[in-house]
Design a protein that fits this description.
392 residues; alpha+beta; FAD/NAD(P)-binding domain; 8-stranded mixed beta sheet; 4-stranded mixed beta sheet; 11 helices; 22 strands; globular
Length: 392
């Protein structure tokens, strides 16, 4: 019997394993991951941004843990020799309505203790000559990194501390007794005194397997990216974001310099019919049946019908996607949008159609389940892990 079992090999699961071993030196731990490599889903399919915490509701877990996580990520990367860059981020308002929302974000950033600078249109143009807007917020502490490399470094520390990592092992059954929890699947079973489940896109299924009342569903939203040609990689110096819609948990299509020197644009947010199908048009019959049969999905669709139709149209027709980008970077052309692999966001949706914005955890007597950990979970991974271990 192990002291601890962690299910899930994304950055939050690996960070939790590391934190458990450092809190409990000499403890036995096994981490079980379904894929044949770590960080294969949300951790490895994002924009690689070290977020600063400007967006999140004051007092929320996201607001508190993101600020801590940004500091930790930079310190860890520096100590491990992992490349990162603090390039800053511009949130660009392109009309009067966005400018009003931008000012609200400015006030929120002050409340959250995030350093931010308010720019007028002239200063925006001076800093980024190819970007157009009526004003912007500059967040100097935002950076870029490869979270796959961060996860690999954390996993190396797990192994150094005596932890075991099992890859290619799906868990389909959880059995909890008064003394232990057993995770089992086609590849074997693992029994531990305590269990942490960081299952991402499978979080609701793992919670149901543990006997938790599941009044939510993980609804996958495909985030489709494009990369720009290498000769356009110097188009902007900073991350360029639109001002987000506060009713949605998505940040909009943004220009993202990557730590490898490339420049990407994206992601959008399109309802997916396959939790782990990254190719456009992917459909998994079980996933589709659960998603479309869930009342919360229909309520989300009704509430955000106009947004959903626009996102689907822009996914089907590249010209609409381009128009979203040209609102703040008008010189982009169709030839600039080259294919790049999509990502999939695991979004928890309640039965009444509420999109869960904050991190969400639930527990049984011997386990903790991370039910919702979208962006900025990669930035916040170690503070999330500390919080999980405190709760455990």
């Amino acid at each position: 019997m192990y002291d601890f079992c962690v299910i899930g090999g994304g950055i939050v699961g690996v960070a939790t394993a590391r934190t458990l071993l450092r809190r409990h030196p000499g403890a036995s731990l096994v981490l079980v991951e379904k894929a044949r490599a770590l960080a294969t889903h949300q951790t490895g399919h994002n924009s690689g941004v070290i977020h600063s915490g400007i967006y999140y509701a004051p007092g929320s877990l996201k607001a508190r843990l993101c600020a801590q996580g940004a500091r930790w990520t930079k310190e860890f990367a520096a100590a491990q020799g992992i490349p990162f860059e603090v390039c800053g981020k511009l949130l660009v308002a392109t009309d009067a309505a966005e400018h009003r929302r931008m000012l609200d974000l400015y006030e929120r950033s002050i409340t959250n203790g995030v350093e931010v600078e308010l720019l007028d249109a002239a200063e925006l143009r001076r800093r980024e000559p190819r970007v157009t807007g009526v004003g912007a917020l500059f967040v100097p502490g935002t950076g870029i990194i490869d979270y796959g490399r961060v996860t690999a470094a954390l996993a190396a520390q797990v192994r150094e501390e005596g932890g075991r990592i099992v890859l290619g092992a799906e868990v389909t059954e959880l059995r909890e007794s008064a003394e232990s929890v057993t995770a089992a699947g086609p590849s074997g079973s693992w029994t531990a005194r305590r269990l942490v489940v960081c299952a991402g896109l499978q979080a609701d299924r793992m919670a149901a397997a543990a006997g938790l009342r599941v009044d939510f569903r993980i609804v996958p939203f495909r985030g489709e990216y494009y990369r720009l040609p290498p000769e356009r990689a110097d188009l902007v110096r900073t991350l360029i974001y639109p001002v987000p819609d506060p009713s949605l948990p998505f940040l909009g299509v943004h220009l993202s310099p990557m730590i490898d020197g490339s420049l990407t644009v994206g992601p959008n947010a399109v309802l997916g019919l396959s939790r782990e199908g990254y190719r456009k048009g992917s459909v998994d019959l079980r996933d589709a049946r659960e998603i479309l049969g869930f009342p919360g999905t229909h309520r989300v669709a009704r509430t955000h019908l106009r947004t959903g139709v626009r996102e689907l149209r822009n996914s089907l027709f590249k010209r609409g996607y381009l128009a979203e980008c040209r609102r703040y970077c008008p010189e982009l052309t169709m030839a600039d949008l080259l294919p790049r692999e999509a990502g999939i966001r695991a979004q928890a949706v309640l039965r009444d159609g509420t999109l869960v914005h904050d991190f969400l955890l639930e527990r049984t007597a011997r386990s903790i389940h991370v039910l919702n950990a979208p962006s900025p979970a990669a930035t916040s991974a170690i503070p999330i892990a500390e919080h999980i271990v405190d709760q455990l």
